[in-house]
What does this fold into?
Amino acid sequence: MRTRPGICRRKRRFATEDAALQVAAGATVALRPYKCGLCRQYHLTSRTKGMKLPGFERERRAVQGRA
Ligand SMILES: [Zn+2]
It folds into this structure.
């Protein structure tokens, strides 16, 4: 994903994808980590279209499906 410099500066950065995923797992909205080509770290985006579901969200949906 392309990131504009202004977006990169404003966004929170994570050194690893795991760190970003942990925050995404605790968030109330769907977020996906992506690697930024500018700072070479990870940011979170709410644009989830076409992105692979992280493990915690697959589990969450599986639980909801059973209810
Ligand atoms: Zn960045």
Observations:
- The helical segments are 5-10, 17-26, 55-66.
- The mean pLDDT is 86.
